[in-house]
Design brief:
By secondary structure, this protein is of the alpha+beta class. The chain contains 25 helices and 23 strands. The protein folds into 4 domains: 190 residues, no CATH class; 162 residues, no CATH class; 222 residues, no CATH class; 201 residues, no CATH class. The strands form 5 sheets. Strands 1, 2, 3, 4, 5, 6, 7, 8, 9 and 10 form a 10-stranded mixed sheet that branches. Strand 6 and strand 7 form a beta hairpin. Helix 1 packs across helix 9, helix 16 crosses helix 23 and helix 17 packs antiparallel against helix 20. The longest helix has 34 residues. It starts with 17 loop residues before the first helix and ends in a 6-residue tail after the last helix.
Length: 824
């Protein structure tokens, strides 16, 4: 018996070898990486550095001061005021509506001589379901009985207490049994007693963990004020990731130049793969696999380095940030996302060189001839579209909308990459009129356009970032130097009672404490040889509950739609608030307003034509919807000076109370930085804060530092790029040497390459930066009429000159060795 088997015909040139072929190509790429990893060390180091910086940045974002210092693990904080029965009834209502609650009792602040904030005496369960994370025991034990108290370290220092010692307060003796802290806010100064051990409860904070819908549907006691927790750290993590993405775009540009050189070096090997039957996708896969391996190795090394550095150095940040840091509480999911982004960036950087190498004919690949560059106008069209889209997004962002800001920055950065070939083409056209050595160098840049364009885009991005910061600092300096506008004149300061100034809660100040604060303000004025010191009084609504131990001032606020998911009611933004000051006799006399000229029925004195659209809002929670009677007067047009004054008639009509805000100090001349620093230190020692007009000195120093950093980064990119070019064109240099080219000619080739790239990158980066700043400051573009000439000269002139000289000087050793190398 015989069996006939039909053979399948062998068809050459079809199929791709399937999975075995892909595995073989991937193994070849892996072995090639193991053999040549030193040649890709720069790309590996840049990826590792980017991921390490992102990991550390995510750690800082996660550990930034958060609302956990106030909310613990809750998401709603309800404040109740009144008598004991009213507070107990309100707590019972909340417990019946929402189940589990955590109650923190507060008494009136304990006055401390020389301090405006005092000490909070609170009764709280250290094992509370929501507020337990807000307490940490450092020494001793938790207070338990009626005669025990625990204090924070700062409270013990202010009151002269020590562990085991007595504390007599309001006629009640207690023993200090522990030293505690709020780990989320190390500056929180308080004394802690056991629940139920407060003599007279002033108000209570009730912590809840419910959704917004559940809170709106539940019963709430009348007169209760509510605060909602926001996810500030989550937003910070997103911003860190976006900055990391911009950094990875920069790294991918450098990696693209490196991968282009590697593809050119491997062109003969890739040609051999094609000669033995490898398809285009196999050749492309070989380079993409190399990019994936480089990305994985660099990103994983960076993640390990960043995590180790964060774990070792994070305790040093506890004092500046003002809270304890769990060094192992990194957002590991987000770190993994950063690692994946780095791998994607490396693969994306390898994609274009892989695509170009796969299209090179086998014969051309075996001869190691580079492919002809594609016309630059194809990239320019898309680059112009993306640049226009990025500038439009920055224009529409109005300096306040993060999605438009992020989209505009990313679109502009990608546009730089697509516009870089146009710059390289322009360099090639200019080569016609250049001397021999620069002409050869500039034409060589055009010949290897893919590699040169990626490097030029990286240089332009580094220069563009430096130029943006420099121009932004110049705008700040120009605003500070303007004779009018801004927050304050140059010869005035305001000494505020509260760190949060007029829009934050103002501490309740006792008369004796007010005298001590006034003495501090007088001491500051004496140091400045002030010609006038005018008290500034604000207004508060006694019916509005205390907020974090302070009384929220009444302001003119523009209402906004609360939007879905909010607890209801009218919402107010601090950006649309106008401070209200009491028209005291001292303030009226200072501004030359005769009290007899004030109308008897006037409520507010202001130069504003109208306050239509504004409400009288107490602490941003809303207030009486009344229409105050206006009287127009002349007042200075500065953001932090009184622009709206409330009369005695308005105070009586609206049942408001006066609260001290601070003192306006008028100096005989423009204040210097040294004077402002001394005033700030004196104020801080007394629990006050000082506001002054920005001098612009810090911004100018920042601009200088960023300009220097941008130039250094651009020079680093140039060093890497020129090093790659020299290694790739070594054969051409040996040919020139054999033809009689002198050492100066070889030096001039490298110097002209570096100088041309630096000049082109400086022009493109600075031009795009100016366009971006015009879109950003479109409402006040006149401030850009004060350019930082020295900084721009350092970028546009200094960078090319340093690059040229560096290329000339640093090529010496290689130039001497070329003559002794054999020709191929």
């Amino acid at each position: 018996m015989s069996v006939a088997v039909r053979d399948r015909p062998l068809v050459l040139g079809t199929g791709h070898g399937g999975m075995p072929a892909r595995r073989a190509v991937a193994r070849w790429a892996w072995r090639l990486f193991r053999r040549e990893w030193r040649q890709q060390l720069i790309v590996l180091a840049l990826l590792a550095l980017a991921v390490a910086a992102t990991t550390a940045g995510l750690g800082i974002a996660t550990s930034a001061p958060s609302e956990a210092a106030i909310f613990g693990t809750a998401d709603h904080l309800v404040t109740l005021e009144g008598t004991g029965d009213r507070i107990a009834s309100g707590v019972a209502t909340l417990r019946g509506s929402f189940g589990t609650v955590d109650v923190i009792e507060h008494t009136k602040h304990i006055a401390v001589p020389g301090s405006a904030n005092g000490i909070d005496l609170r009764a709280q369960d250290p094992r509370g379901v929501y507020g337990g994370t807000m307490l940490r025991l450092d020494e001793g034990h938790w207070p338990q009985g009626p005669g025990e108290v625990a204090v924070t370290g700062r409270a013990a220092s202010l009151l002269g207490l020590h562990l085991g010692g007595p504390w007599n307060q309001d006629g009640r003796a207690r023993t200090v049994v522990g030293v505690v802290e709020n780990p989320w806010n190390l500056r929180d100064t308080f004394a802690l007693v056991a629940p139920g051990q407060t003599a007279a409860v002033d108000h209570v904070d009730v912590l809840l963990r419910v959704s917004s819908d559940e809170y709106r549907a539940g019963a709430r006691p009348p007169g209760a004020s509510t605060q909602l927790r926001s996810d500030g750290n989550g937003t910070a993590q997103v911003m860190v990731l976006m900055l990391a993405t911009i950094g990875l775009v920069f790294v991918s540009l450098l990696a693209g130049a490196g991968f282009t050189v590697m593809a050119q070096r491997r062109l003969r090997a890739l040609g051999m793969l094609g000669a033995i039957g490898a398809s285009h996708r196999h050749v492309r896969l070989a380079l993409l696999a190399n990019g994936a391996v480089v990305g994985a190795a660099g990103s994983l090394a960076g993640a390990v380095l960043g995590s180790a550095g964060w774990i070792a150095l994070s305790p040093l940040l506890e004092t500046p940030l003002g809270h304890r840091i769990d060094r192992f509480a990194l957002p590991w999911t987000t770190v993994l996302l950063a690692v994946l982004l780095a791998i994607v960036a490396a693969v994306a950087a390898a994609w274009w060189p892989a695509r170009a190498a796969a299209r090179v004919p086998v014969v051309a690949a075996l001869s190691a001839r580079p492919a002809s560059p594609r016309p630059a106008h194809r990239f320019a069209a898309l680059g112009v579209v993306l640049l226009a889209a990025g500038l439009t997004a920055l224009y529409l962002a109005q300096q306040t909308k993060p999605p438009f800001i992020i989209g505009g920055v990313l679109a502009t950065a990608v546009a730089l990459l697509l516009l870089a070939p146009v710059g390289i083409a322009a360099v090639g056209r200019l080569a016609r009129r250049a001397p021999l050595a620069p002409r050869l160098a500039m034409r060589d840049l055009t010949r290897y356009r893919s590699r040169s364009s990626a490097a030029l885009a990286a240089i332009a991005l580094a220069v563009g970032i430096a130029a943006v910061v420099t121009l932004g600092a110049a705008v700040t300096v120009a605003k500070a130097a303007a004779p009018t506008g801004g927050n304050l004149p140059r010869d005035q300061i305001v000494v505020w009672v509260s760190q949060e100034r007029i829009f934050g809660p103002v501490p309740v100040v006792a008369p004796a404490e007010a005298d001590a604060l006034r003495k501090q303000a007088d001491a500051i004025a004496a140091d400045l040889h002030a010609t006038a010191t005018v008290p500034l009084m604000g207004v508060s609504d006694p019916n509005v509950p205390l907020e974090r131990g302070g009384r929220p001032p009444v302001t003119l606020a523009k209402p906004h739609d609360p939007g879905p998911g909010s607890p209801g009611g009218v919402m107010y933004s601090s950006d649309d608030m106008i401070g209200i000051f009491v028209a005291t006799p001292e303030l009226l006399a200072y501004y030359g307003i005769d009290p007899a000229s004030v109308d008897a029925d006037a409520d507010l004195l202001t130069p504003r034509a109208s306050i239509a659209g504004y409400d009288l809002a107490g602490g941003g929670r809303g207030g009486p919807r009344v229409q105050p009677v206006l009287q127009h007067v002349t007042l200075p047009d500065y953001a932090s000076l009184p622009n709206v004054l409330i009369t005695a008639h308005g105070m009586e009509r609206l049942h408001y109370a006066a609260v001290p805000l601070g003192w306006l100090v008028d100096a005989p001349g423009a204040l210097t930085t040294a004077q402002l620093d001394k005033a700030t230190q004196t104020a801080a020692a007394g629990g006050l804060s000082v506001e002054s007009r920005p001098t612009g000195g810090d911004e100018a120093r920042l601009a200088d530092q960023v300009t220097a950093a941008g130039i250094a980064l651009a020079l680093g990119v140039l060093a890497m790029t020129v090093g790659l070019i020299r290694s790739e064109t070594a054969r051409d240099l040996r040919t020139l040497t054999a033809a009689g080219a002198r050492r100066g000619t070889r030096r001039a080739l490298t110097a002209a390459t570096a100088g041309a790239l630096a000049l082109c990158g400086a022009v493109i980066g600075t031009g795009c930066a100016y366009l971006a700043m015009l879109a950003w400051y479109h409402r006040e573009a006149h401030w850009l009429g004060h350019p930082p000439l020295l900084n721009l000269a350092a970028i546009l002139v200094g960078l090319p000159v340093v690059a040229y000289l560096g290329g000339w000087l640093l090529v010496g050793r290689e130039a001497r060795g070329i003559a002794r190398q054999a020709l191929e």
